[in-house]
Amino acid sequence: MILDARDATVHYPGMPAPAVAGVDLTLGPGELVAVVGPNGCGKTSLVRGLLGLVPLRAGQVTLDGRAIGTWRREEVARLVALVPQREETPFSWRVEEMVRFGRYARLGPLSPMTAGDRAAVDRALARSDVTALRRRAVETLSGGEWQRVRIARALAQEPELLVLDEPTSSLDLGHEMELFELVAALVRDGLSALVVTHDLNLAARYSGRMLVIDGGRVAAAGTPEAVMQPELLSRVFRWPVGVVSLEGAPHVVPEGRETGPRHYS
Amino acid sequence: MLALAACLVGLAVGATPLPLDVLFAALGSPEAPAADIVRNIRLPRVLLALVVGGSLAVTGTALQALVRNPLADPYLLGISGGAGLAAVVAIALGLGGVWGVPAAAFVGGLGAIALVYRLSSVAGRRLDPHVLVLAGVVVSAFTGALISAVLTLSPAEQLRNAFLWLLGGFSGSSWRTLGVFLVYASLPLLALFAAARPLDLLSLGEEPAQSLGLDAPRARRVVYLATSLLTAASVAVCGVVGFVGLVAPHALRGLLGPSHRRLLPAVFLAGGGFLVLADALARTVVRPIELPVGVVTALVGVPLFAVMLRKALR
């Protein structure tokens, strides 16, 4: 297991209730696990807790068999790469500089980039298909290009686990598909991935297992077929939904207030 | 190159302007006609302005990465004001001295930055860069008021000392002041130059920096301490001089890009050259009276700040 969480609980100081409570999650090599749930359900806090970015109030998380609290940040960064949900920088970085930051955990503050580091940056740029953009300033990129650059930066870390927090929330359909296809291809090549997303249908289509979070707790966990149940999803998302099967993958269809349940042949 | 040219100008101008040949002769031999002025008065003064300007510029650059806002500057964030207040209190109580004033200024600078930090984190858990600058302005106004109060309540002799110092400028410079400044400033300068890559990552924000492998809280503490020390040392030797930390990085980021490994050394030289020239102007425009050097830097800095603010809000 790369990542193993038992009863993981995150409780921010001064808050009445925990943001995440009692979450169990395991992730092995070459697995893609999707974390879904309504806005504010604790998905991002769960990611923070799993990566040791906030301390756990209870339970434990081990990375590669070792408790997360005993890892130094640069050790974590050599094993796990995170693409955070939002990111803004006031400065005009070039794409190539941005992707080079992925090598920080292997360089430290002072040593220069080696040929090996440069090769890793080139591979990461190519894998995410942003080599042609390498001289561009990041503020001139489109939303889809910017996401691919941030994935390239994560790949330059040469991680075993890639964590994406709502990677497609600001992307149109084409860019969303491009991104999920890229992540699926990386997983086929042996990378593990944890993807937090709003998109139930793409989560069901691309992931091997899904984790439904509601109010900081696990509402359901298992294969997409096991988790994509109309009653469960209607309850969690507070809206009536139906589930149909499309090309073998479960597909959620929200009902309209006026029209009621829709029927598909 | 430009910094070197600025130094030559700084050495040449003054109450008695010196042609370059006289200047070089004086630098070359202690027996030359102008040797005393050049070697004992102007050279330490120009070198002090160079390293103080460089330190303020490096401080501004580091703070801009830290708070992720190109409008940050030790003066605008209230660090200079806090350092100035503590220094005035030390002088008024007669606790000054060449070594004591910088130490008091350091405590004041740290106090001010802690207060600014508290003020700007009240609203939410995250530091909003705009609120941070606003908090800095509030703290500056507050320290300014307290400085006036301390001055009013001081005995006449201390008042004169404190007031002269507060006006700022390099008129009291000597090899000794330069030595004191270097003792206080070398370590934090080295620490910031060594933190070039961490500063790059800090400018991306807390979460990206951490996930890329930076111990962000630790890096942030180093930057806070080093910038407070540098500001305090600068304030102690030349009073409160603003905007150097704003002008130099703004001019160079466009040319060199934001990478701190390239930016920090360049900004040190540019800020140093800028302050040497500002000091040369301050000495000469209304000769024989010397303007406080902070007046000159503000005359350049405030319009630039206005332009940058417009750009930032657009």
Describe this structure in words.
The complex is a heterodimer of chains A (265) and B (314). In chain A, 33% of the residues lie in helices and 25% in strands. Chain A is built from ten helices and twelve strands. In chain A, the strands form three sheets. Chain A has a six-stranded mixed sheet, with helices on both faces. Chain B has 314 residues and is mainly α. In chain B, 77% of the residues lie in helices and 0% in strands. The relative contact order of chain B is 0.18.
Structure in a nutshell:
The complex is a heterodimer of chains A (265) and B (314). Chain A has helices at 43-50, 73-79, 95-100, 104-107, 115-127, 143-156, 173-188, 200-206, 224-227, 230-237; strands at residues 3-10, 20-27, 32-36, 58-63, 66-67, 80-83, 161-165, 192-196, 209-214, 217-222, 241-246, 249-254. Chain A has 265 residues and is of the alpha/beta class.
Tell me the domain tally of chain B: 1
Main β-sheet of chain B, in a few words? Answer: none
- Characterize the quaternary organization of these chains: heterodimer
Question: Largest interface, and how many residues on either side?
Answer: A-B, 31 and 29 residues
Radius of gyration of chain A: 19 Å
The residue ranges of chain B in which pLDDT falls below 50 over 5 or more consecutive positions are none
How many H/I helices of chain A? 10
Approximate helicity band of chain B: over 70%
Report the mean per-residue pLDDT of chain B as an integer.
Answer: 84
Number of helices of chain B: 14
Strand arrangement across the biggest beta sheet of chain A? 6-7-8-3-9-10
Shape of chain A: globular
Helix content of chain A: 25-40%
Radius of gyration of CA atoms of chain B, rounded to a whole number: 19 Å
CATH class of chain B: Mainly Alpha
Q: What is the name of the CATH architecture of chain B?
A: Orthogonal Bundle
